[in-house]
Amino acid sequence: xxxxxxxxxxxxxxxxxxxxxxxxxxxxxxxxxxxxxxxxxxxxxxxxxxxxxxxxxxxxxxxxxxxxxxxxxxxxxxxxxxxxxxxxxxxxxxxxxxxxxxxx
Length: 104
Fold this sequence. Notes:
- The chain is an all-alpha fold and 104 residues long.
- It has 6 helices and no strands.
- The longest helix has 19 residues, at 49-67.
């Protein structure tokens, strides 16, 4: 289980800035069907594949906001979000506060 999650996180990080990277690309890279990936991730993390990918993107964004001088928009694009306002809503939903509140 740990190896699987580690591999999934590594693959997501490799394509972090690719906004089109999603469930099908992840499944292909893992060599599993989308439903197999969904079942495994759901069983281990309790999250669907798409939500898990978004969570990893948001964790990376939070780290970047805390450690770099990038703007919220720059970070949003860097972690694969096409729309900074959607990024801000997703970030606030995940962490309970706006991404702009942790900018340096």
